[in-house]
Specification:
Helix content: over 70%
Radius of gyration: 21 Å
Largest sheet: none
Number of helices: 10
Order of helices and strands: HHHHHHHHHH
Oligomer: single chain
Mean pLDDT: 89
Structural class: mainly alpha
Low-confidence stretches: none
Strand content: under 5%
Distance between the termini: 51 Å
Shape: globular
């Protein structure tokens, strides 16, 4: 694996870790949360610098269903993270209090809360769209050997179980209220054990990774069907000539 690829994978991993830590506000508290936000911003910039070729290619080539899905998701994620960072700076009391952003505290709080959860969901879906890459890395670590049928079944059942728990946590914590601006304040259980908070966040992440993986499979299948229909139409036209 090339050094740039290794750096890209490490950066992506650190971004996910930082994002999960940012969502664990009840564990970290305000000051650590702010410094984690600064670190996440730097990783966000590095991530985009390492993927400049993807942005340069936006105006080139055909837009298949998987490519449209990925492009729309990246655009939404970029906007959410940008809004999250700006609103976070507007409320900063420890890391960047000297930066004056002309946004009222109430507006910044509402925007930060909504975009924070949207970013968490969209990053998870984005991971799911590229999950085949991680599956490929796992296969390489096993020396190219495929898992047995029993091994695949166990992993699928485990993924389904974790995702089901993630769905429960997602609904129980009323995250949709935050995402759709139905609640101005986040309600955290500060008495909950740190490990349980992290476990719940990881299960929610797993839920949306699974959704992203399913969307990618559906988009690929749509593109394949479209290609097959075009091929069949060409053959039919040739026969009618």
């Amino acid at each position: 694996m090339r050094p740039k690829q290794i750096l890209r994978h490490i950066t992506d991993l650190l971004m996910v870790v930082a994002l999960v830590a940012l969502m664990a506000y009840a564990v970290t508290g305000q000051e650590i949360h702010e410094w984690l936000g600064v670190a996440a911003f730097l990783l966000f910039v590095l991530h985009h610098l390492l993927n400049l070729n993807w942005f340069r290619a936006l105006g080139k080539g055909k837009y298949t269903a998987p490519r449209i899905l990925q492009t729309v998701l990246v655009a939404l994620l970029f906007l959410c993270m940008l809004a999250q960072m700006v609103s976070g700076v507007a409320m900063s009391r420890h890391a960047l209090p000297f930066l004056n952003v002309p946004i009222s505290t109430s507006t910044a709080r509402l925007l930060h809360l909504a975009c924070g959860y949207w970013s968490f969901v969209l990053v998870s879906v984005h991971l799911g769209l590229h999950w085949s890459v991680f599956l490929g890395l796992g296969r390489k670590l096993r020396g190219g050997k495929a898992l047995s049928a029993r091994g695949r079944l166990i992993l699928r059942l485990l993924a389904a179980g974790i995702s089901a728990y993630g769905l429960y946590c997602f609904l129980q914590q009323k995250i949709l209220d935050y995402m759709f601006l139905r609640s101005e304040f986040a309600f955290f259980d500060y008495g909950k054990a740190a490990l349980l908070v992290i476990a719940e966040l990881l299960s929610i992440l797993a839920l949306w990774v699974l959704v992203g993986y399913a969307l990618q499979k559906a988009a690929v299948w749509t593109a394949v069907k479209k290609k097959l229909r075009k091929g069949a139409a060409k053959i039919k036209d040739k026969r009618n000539m």
